[in-house]
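Your task:
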Amino acid sequence: MSHSLNSKTPAMDDPMLRVQAENDDLVQRVNEQITLETFDSTDQKVLKQLVEGLGDTRGLVRLRFAETLGEIGEPATPFLVEALANHANVVVRRAAAKTLTIISDSSAVPNLLHAFLNDEDTVVRSSSAGALARTGEAAVPALLEILASNEHSEDIKGHAAWALAFIGSEAADYLYEALNAASLDVRCAVIGALGHVAQEQSDEKSCNLLVSALTDPESIIRTEAASALGQVNYPPSVPHLILAIQDTDLDVRKAAINSLGKIGDRSALEPLQAVLNDQQEVVRILAKLAIAQIERQSEDDW
């Protein structure tokens, strides 16, 4: 009997186990309150505790905290952006960025941008880019600004271009305008994003802009446009892609051949057969593959 009186539970002995037990209790209690619609979203103490729970050593528990905060939504945003900006624990900063992705609150854009550009941790930066992408239209001007700047690395610009493409049709008006930007990086990213817009909603304007870009003075823009048209599968682009097979730039020619293969229009067969004797081996190989693709699609149609 005396032994049991003096013994302590492991959770009381071990600080980590004690924190885990408290976290389990907190997340269970809050989820019950959410279910019963009795949760007080103005309770700052609880919201702070939930954000701290994102630092739990157990991945599944961190996910449960993130989902709970996501369920609470915008009332949690100020506490998440504070953690993203200032928390010493990188695990919390990472999870805060991922949770802001769930909430998609446009008021978080300035803080997400700061973390995307300045956090020392690559996961925090990429997760912040993901959250910006989910935020949608509100993030577009800043993403275009990043692409236009000479201060940022290729990695940052790559993430910004990806986020822009992910936003897609929500950003359409900005994209149409930015197509005439002075910055080549901006125009390149815009062409890629227009491909996504055209895919999402069969947008005639985006498709026509991609076709026009096949004659852009910059070869990298022509290449991006030719690639994007293959993803869109826009039949009126076929004659323009056929012309692009003869482009002076090898990358443009390769992209045009690939896209003609994907679109599968039989009118491209003869022009593709004409380049089977091209001086460039890669052109010959790609043309052969594209012809096989078109013929296979023709058989499937029967």
Summary: The chain is about 75% helix and 0% strand. Residues 1-8 have pLDDT under 50 and may be disordered. The CA atoms of residues 148 and 183 lie 5 Å apart. The longest helix spans residues 15-36.
